[in-house]
Design goal:
- The strands form four sheets. Strands 2, 4, 5, 6, 9 and 10 form a six-stranded mixed β-sheet that branches. Strands 11-12-13-17-16 form a five-stranded antiparallel β-sheet. A four-stranded antiparallel β-sheet has the order 1-3-8-7, with no helix packed on it.
- It has two helices and 19 strands.
- The chain is globular, with a radius of gyration of 18 Å.
- The two termini are 34 Å apart.
- β11 and β12 form a beta hairpin.
- The chain is mainly β.
- The structure holds copper (II) ion (CU).
C-alpha cells in the first residue's frame, strides 16, 4: 500500500483516516488495524447537477471508472433486470484484481432519490473488470448506484452514478432528521447514539439492539460480512458516501460500535445492517449534523 496515495485520497475522505486512527487510541482493542489503510474517493457522477464533488480527484484510484448498464438497455420498475458494472482505468483497460473487503470483491449500494429505498447487494465478478447482478427497482425514477471496492494494491474506492428506471415514479419525500433515534425493525428495537453531532469530529456510532418485546439486549448477533454489522451513510442529496468502520468487528451485541466522520453540516441517512438468527435486518436513521 502506497502511503502517499492513501494520504492524497484521504483528503477526499475528509479526514476519515484520522477518524480511524483515533479508534485505536480508544479502549476498543478489537479494532482491526488494517482499516487504517482504508480511505475513500469522492463519488463521481456523470449526472448533470449531481456531480459537483467528482471533478478534481487527485488520487490514483479516482482515475478508475465504473460504467453501469442494464442488459435490456433500460430498467423498468418492478422487473428483474441484469445490471452490469464495468470497472476500468482511465485508458479503458479493465481492472481485474480486487482485494476482498468485508468478504466481497465489490459491494453495490442502490438508493432512490429521497433515500427511502436502500439496497445492498453483491454482484458476481465475471472477469475483464465486469460484475453483474440481477436486481429490480420498486418504482420508476432516478436511482444512485455506488460500487464500493478496493483495487489490488489500492485503497477503498467508491464510484457512483445516477441511473434512470422507467415507470411511474413514487412520491418524493424530504429526507428529514428523526426526532428520536429509536426504531423497531423485524422485532428488534434499535437505538442509535452518536457521541458528537458536529461535522469533522471523530464520531462513534453506537447501535444498541434489543428484543422489541422483552426489551432485553440481543447478545448473539451473528457476523455479517465478517463483522458485527455493516453501516452505510449518505448525505441527503446522495453526493457524499461515507465510509464507516466497526470499532470491534467481533462484537456480538447488544452494542455495535462504528467509527466515522461527517465531512460537513447537513442531513445524513444512516443504514445499519445486522444479522440475527440467520436473517439480515436493516435499520435506517436520519441525523442532522451541525
Ligand atoms: Cu456489501
Amino acid at each position: 500500500m502506497n502511503k502517499k496515495m492513501i494520504m492524497i485520497s484521504s483528503i477526499l475522505a475528509f479526514g476519515l483516516l484520522s477518524a480511524c486512527g483515533n479508534a485505536d487510541k480508544s479502549d476498543h482493542s478489537g479494532h482491526d488495524s488494517s482499516h487504517n489503510q482504508e480511505s475513500s474517493t469522492a463519488p463521481t457522477s456523470s449526472h448533470g447537477g449531481h456531480g459537483g464533488h467528482g471533478a478534481d480527484q487527485p488520487a490514483a484510484e479516482s482515475n478508475l471508472k465504473a460504467s453501469f448498464t442494464f442488459a435490456s438497455g433500460a430498467a423498468k420498475a418492478n422487473e428483474n433486470t441484469e445490471l452490469s458494472i464495468q470497472i476500468a482505468d482511465k485508458d479503458g483497460n479493465p481492472i481485474n484484481d480486487f482485494e476482498i473487503n468485508h468478504e466481497k470483491l465489490l459491494h453495490l449500494i442502490i438508493v432512490n432519490h429521497d433515500l427511502s429505498f436502500f439496497n445492498h447487494i453483491h454482484p458476481e465478478f465475471k472477469g475483464e473488470g465486469k460484475f453483474t447482478i440481477e436486481t429490480s427497482f420498486p418504482t420508476g425514477g432516478e436511482y444512485k448506484v455506488f460500487a464500493d471496492f478496493i483495487p489490488k494494491g489500492g485503497s477503498n474506492t467508491t464510484l457512483s452514478e445516477w441511473v434512470k428506471v422507467e415507470g411511474k415514479e413514487g412520491a418524493h419525500e424530504a429526507v428529514k432528521a428523526d426526532a428520536k433515534l429509536v426504531k423497531v425493525v423485524d422485532g428488534k428495537e434499535v437505538e442509535l447514539t452518536l457521541n458528537s453531532m458536529n461535522a469533522k469530529d471523530e464520531v462513534t456510532l453506537t447501535f444498541n439492539i434489543l428484543d422489541a418485546q422483552t426489551k432485553e439486549g440481543i447478545s448473539n448477533l451473528e457476523p455479517y460480512l465478517g463483522a458485527v454489522g455493516h453501516v452505510v451513510i449518505l448525505s441527503d442529496d446522495a453526493e457524499q458516501y461515507i465510509h464507516v468502520h466497526p470499532i470491534d468487528e467481533k462484537a456480538t451485541g447488544p452494542k455495535a460500535q462504528f467509527a466515522t466522520s461527517f465531512p460537513e453540516s447537513g442531513t445524513y441517512k444512516i443504514w445499519g445492517q445486522f444479522q440475527h438468527q440467520g436473517k439480515v435486518f436493516t435499520v435506517p436513521f436520519v441525523v442532522e449534523i451541525k
